[in-house]
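hey so i finally got around to running the thing on that chain from the lab meeting. sorry it took forever, my laptop kept dying and i had to restart like 3 times. anyway pasting the input first so we r on the same page abt which one it is
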Amino acid sequence: MICAEPGGPEWATAKLRELVEATGAHPVALDAERHDARVAAISHLPQLVAVALAEAAGLAEGGDPGVLALAGGGFRDTTRIAQSPADFWLDVLDTNRDRVVAGIDAVQALLTDVRRAVAAGDRASLTRHFTDARAVRGRLPARGKGLLPAYHDLVLFVPDRPGVLGHLCGALGERGINVQDIEILRLREGEGGTLRLGFATAGEADAALAVLEGLGHRAQRR
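ok and heres what got predicted. didnt touch it at all, straight out
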C-alpha cells in the first residue's frame, strides 16, 4: 500500500495504479521518452511493416490475380494488424513521429542488406540475419516471464462448419472450463483451421483436452 496525501502526486499515482490493476492489467512506470521509444519499436513500427507487406502483396495480386489465394498462415499472421483503422494510427504516428521514422530507417537498412545478400547469393549473410532474428524472437517473454498472463495451451483442429467454435466453447463451459484466450493459427475456407486455446491452469487444459477428444476432435497440448 502506498500512503500519500490525498490529492498529491504520489496519491494520484497510487490511485491510478489501483485502477489499472483492477482491470486485470499490469501497470509499468516509465517516463514519456522511454515509453514512446519502446512502443515505436514493438507496436508502431510493426504496424507500418504489416501495412507495407500487405500493400506489396496487393501489387503482386494486381499483376497476377490469384497470388492472394495462395496466402497461408505466415502471411495471415504477419499482416493481421494491417486491418487496423487508419484514423487511430494517424494520430499515434503524429505524436511519435521521430521515433517511428528512426525505426523505419533501421528496417530499411536491414532490408537493404538482406536484398544485397539475396542478389549476391551471400548465404553466410542471410544465415546471420536468420540466426539473429531467431535469437531475438527467442527472447520474447515465455510463460510466466512477461507482463502478459501465462496460459496453458491446447492446439485444436476444427472443421469448416457454422457454429463449431460456439459448440466447442459451450461444451467446455458446461463443464466449468473457461477458455481464457483464443488465437487462430491457420484457417482455410472449406478445409477448417487450427486454433490455440489458452487456459489459466494446467488442470483446465488437461480437462479441456479430454472433453474435446471425447467429442471427436483432434487436439493436443502445447
